[in-house]
Design a protein that fits this description.
It is built from 17 helices and no strands. The protein is mostly helical. The longest helix has 46 residues.
């Protein structure tokens, strides 16, 4: 929970210079040096777990609507800006001795800043959990049917909405109800290997689905004289391109986890944590790009907004696809309860900050959040809507706008210094990206209606 504003301001006089790249995070340096902490490798691993999620399933669709070169340029820009915004957050962390995103908001703009950051984190986490549950709704029926023989169409156990409700009540809710859920952190570390496995399978299955795509969901297909649908586009712009940048922003958002990882890092310094961030973002970029490229080269313009849906249509009984679908679902199930915790913390900070901890309140808030994300997952017709809206608003704020804004407000450097000019550019770019993307998405919805 954030410190009292007066306490934070009193710490300001004892802050460490932002130029000291080797300075530890907090004032008690000897204690930090002697503490065991988390190794560099595990810190990279933890950050990648925070970065990689359901966004990997929407990047092939983003490439189909921007072209290979356009996608490569945009994804590179978003990755570089994500690393730079982490750089600004770490500099702020050293200057203020603040160790959470909400505390930075409190330090910069008082209670208004705290409320703004907490609200953004809450909406972002609700959007992330909804996107994960959307995957369960769309992929779990195909996974169940893959293990059954014969025709089971119309059976209740193949109803995605019913399976989603059962999964949420029986698995997600009990795990999210726990007051301490640290052991799930070890289990969820498997999600990184699931993502790597997913990328490998996408590369392999590129050679198993012909182009033009088969009709009637069989491998007996009608050759189409116009072969242009089997040619990759280098640049593409359409009304669907509005979803590309928000999806990329959604996919690289890890900033709410950066400061906690920094606090736990062994021998914590800004330069060491920046290396953790750069390494984690680079590896995530590589996995994202490989899966997006080969997913696009498999389906071209027919790629689904959620990549696994294409494999469900054209390779419904493929054993390898069944295993990767099961791996993704397992990663999702282990991740959703974890995201409940920062979402619940933000919710409590917004509405019950003056109340002492109560198990009854803990249960009621968890139930409320679970109902909200299940309803959203059931009634949102397309996962690209989640990526688009959440990416254009909260992801853009947490990734671009807030780091730049807080740095301009808090840092004591000259306004024309390199870092403040960079923060100003990040702020302006984030506002432009968010406003343009949200406008185009709204126009696209109106057009479809």
């Amino acid at each position: 929970m954030p410190h009292a504003e007066s306490s934070i301001n009193s710490d300001y006089g004892h802050r460490v210079s932002a130029q000291d790249e080797s300075a530890p995070l907090l004032g008690n340096r000897e204690q930090r040096r002697t503490s065991q902490g988390t190794s560099f490798g595990f810190s990279v691993f933890n950050l990648m777990n925070a970065i990689m999620g359901s966004g990997i399933l929407g990047l092939s669709y983003a490439m189909a609507n921007t072209g290979i070169i356009g996608f490569s340029v945009l994804l590179s820009i978003v990755a570089i800006l994500a690393a730079y915004s982490i750089h600004l957050l770490l500099r702020l962390c050293i200057q203020t001795a603040v160790t959470s995103y909400e505390d930075l908001g409190l330090f910069a703009f008082g209670s208004v800043g705290k409320i703004l950051v907490a609200s953004t984190i809450l909406i972002q986490n609700i959007g992330a959990m909804s996107s994960y549950l959307f995957i369960i709704k769309s992929e779990l029926p195909a996974t169940v049917s893959g293990f059954l023989s014969g025709d089971h169409s119309g059976a209740w156990y193949l109803d995605g909405r019913l399976l989603l409700i059962m999964t949420s009540v029986c698995i997600v809710l009990p795990l999210a109800m726990l007051s301490k859920i640290g052991f799930l952190g070890y289990t969820s570390s498997l999600s990184f290997f699931f993502m790597v496995y997913f990328a490998i399978v996408v590369v392999i299955k590129k050679w198993y689905i012909p182009c033009p795509l088969p009709l009637n969901h069989t491998l007996t297909y009608l050759e189409i004289s116009n072969s242009s649908e089997c040619k990759a586009k280098l640049f593409e712009f359409s009304k669907e391109s509005a979803f590309a940048l928000p999806t990329m922003a959604f996919s690289f958002l890890c900033h709410t986890s950066v400061l906690p990882i920094y606090c736990e890092l062994k021998s914590p310094t800004k330069s060491r944590m920046q290396n953790v961030a750069n390494f984690g973002i680079s590896l995530s970029f590589l996995i994202y790009f490989i899966s997006a490229l080969f997913g696009y080269l498999t389906f071209y313009d027919k790629v689904a907004s959620e990549l696994l849906q294409g494999y469900s249509r054209f390779l419904p009984n493929d054993n390898l696809i069944m295993t990767v679908r099961l791996a993704i679902l397992l990663a999702v199930l282990l991740t959703v309860p974890l995201i409940h915790f920062p979402a619940r913390k933000a919710f409590m900070m917004l509405f019950f900050s003056s109340y002492p901890f109560s198990y009854l309140l803990h249960i009621l808030v968890t139930l409320t959040l679970n109902v909200i994300i299940v309803v959203l997952a059931i009634y949102v017709p397309d996962i690209r809507n989640v990526f688009g809206v959440v990416g254009a608003t909260t992801s853009t704020c947490l990734l671009f706008v807030f780091p730049g804004l807080f740095y301009l407000k808090v840092s004591y450097e000259d306004l024309v210094s390199r870092q403040k000019l960079g923060a100003c550019g990040l702020l302006v770019l984030g506002i432009c990206i968010g406003a343009c993307s949200l406008t185009l998405i709204t126009v696209n919805w109106a057009y479809n209606e």
